[in-house]
Amino acid sequence: MAATRPANPLALAVLVLLWERPMHPYEMSSTLRERRKEDSIKVNYGSLYSVVESLMKRGLIEATETVREGRRPERTVYAITETGGQVMVDWLVELLSTPKKEFTQFEAALSLAGALPPEQVIELLGQRLRNLRFQQKAAEAVFEEARSVGLPRLFMIETEFTVALQNAEIAFVEHLLHDLRDETLGGFGMWRRIHELRRDGVAPGEIEAKIAAEFPDELVFAQHDENH
Amino acid sequence: MAATRPANPLALAVLVLLWERPMHPYEMSSTLRERRKEDSIKVNYGSLYSVVESLMKRGLIEATETVREGRRPERTVYAITETGGQVMVDWLVELLSTPKKEFTQFEAALSLAGALPPEQVIELLGQRLRNLRFQQKAAEAVFEEARSVGLPRLFMIETEFTVALQNAEIAFVEHLLHDLRDETLGGFGMWRRIHELRRDGVAPGEIEAKIAAEFPDELVFAQHDENH
DNA sequence: AGTCGAATATTCGACATCGAGTATTCGCCG
DNA sequence: CGGCGAATACTCGATGTCGAATATTCGACT
C-alpha cells in the first residue's frame, strides 16, 4: 500500500522539523513559534500530539529516546524515518505544484449575504474595509521591522503571500462596495424588494410570486422552477 | 447563556435556507447544488446531517413534520426558530464585517519549502503557474456562460471574489518565480548551500556551523541561537 | 525562604468531519 | 414490462480537531 499521511498540514511541519534534526514535541512547537510559522500554520497543542502519534502509527517517524532532564516530565524524542522523508517530499511537491480549492468563511458569507437587506450589507462591508486597511498597516509594519533586523526575504515569502492576498481582498471589497452603492449590480432591485416584502410580513410563497412578476428579466435563467 | 452555534459554515447555509422556507435535509443539499453554492461552501452529506442535528440541539431549528411521499424513506422537514433567525443574522454580520485569519495549505507549503532544494521549488512553482492559468481560463468561461444565460451578478459575487484571489495568486507566483530565477531573493545562496551539504552527507550539526561561518550577514537576526 | 508568574510538557474528552456504504424508487429505453 | 442507471435519502464509524485542564519547574523578586 502507498504510504498515507495525515490531512493536517501541521504533520508536514513536523516532518520538516524532524528532517532537520530529532526533537521532542514541545520543542517542535517552540521552534515553530520562534520562526514565526504560527502565522502560516495552525499550531495547536492538542493537534500537535495527536499528529505526532498519527505519524508514528504510519511509520513516518519513530521514537528514539525518552529523556528526563532535571525533574521535568519525560520527553520523547522523535526522528524521521526514510519513508517519512519520501512522504515529506511528495507532500511538498503536491502542495507547491498543484493548486487546490480552499473554502473561506468570507466566501461562504458573500454567497449567503442575500439573507440580509442590502443597506446592512453595505454597512458591514464598509466596516470590513476599515478593518482590512488597519490590518494591512499592521502587517506592513511587522514586515518592515523584520527586514530592518536583517531577516532574509526567503524566510518571509509566506507573509508576502498573505499580504498580497489581503491587498486583493481590499481591492475587491472596494470595488464591490462601489457597485452596491451605485445600485448598478445586477439583481439589486430584486434583492431590496424581497426584504421589503418580508419586512411587511408577506408569506414566503407570495413573495416568490410577486418577485417573479416584478422582475421577469432577472429570472430568465430560472426556468427549472416551472417543474414544481 | 448566549446562543452558541456550530463552527461549520454549512450550518449557516442551513439557517439561511430554512429562513427562506422549511425544508428537509436532502432538499437543502439539492437546493445548494442548484444554486451553485457548492463552489463556495463545502457541502457534504455526512456533515449536513450532523450539522442539522447540532442546530436542533441548540434550538436554532425545529422539526415540523415527517412526510412520507410515495414509498420513499421518511423525510423530516425542519424550520428555523426565532433564536435561529437571530443567530443567523449575528453570524452573517460577523463574517461580513470582521476579517479573520484563515490558513491555506499553499501558505503552509511556502513556509516549509526550504526543505526542498531551490531548483526543485522553482520547477514546482512553474507547474503551479501553468495550472493556475489553466484554471483561470476555465473559471472565466463558466463566468461568461452564466452571464450570457442572464444570471444577475448579485448571484455570482462569491465567484468574482475567488477569481480576484486567484489572479492575485498568479501575480504573486509570477513575481516570486522571477526573483528566484534571478537569485536576488535574500537568503537564496544559503538555501542552496544547505542542500549541497546535505546531499554530500554532512551531519546536521556540522551544516549549521558551516552555514553560520559562510553567511554571517544573513544570520545577524539569529542571536538567540547563542544561548544553546 | 517564600511566592508568583512564565515557561515547560502533555493529556483528555467532547465534539466535528467526511467519504463510503446502504437502501429505495423513479424514469427511460428497448 | 423488465431491467438498469440516476436520483433520492440517509447512516455509520474511523479519524481528526482543539481548547481547557493539569502538573511541574525555573527564575526573579521580595
TrEMBL record, chains A, B:
Natural source organism: Jiangella ureilytica
InterPro entries: Metal_resp_DNA-bind_regulator, Tscrpt_reg_PadR_N, WH-like_DNA-bd_sf, WH_DNA-bd_sf
Lineage, top ranks: Bacteria, Bacillati, Actinomycetota, Actinomycetes, Jiangellales
Xref: Gene3D superfamilies: Winged helix-like DNA-binding domain superfamily/Winged helix DNA-binding domain
Domain Transcription regulator PadR N-terminal: 14-87
Name of the molecule in the record: PadR family transcriptional regulator
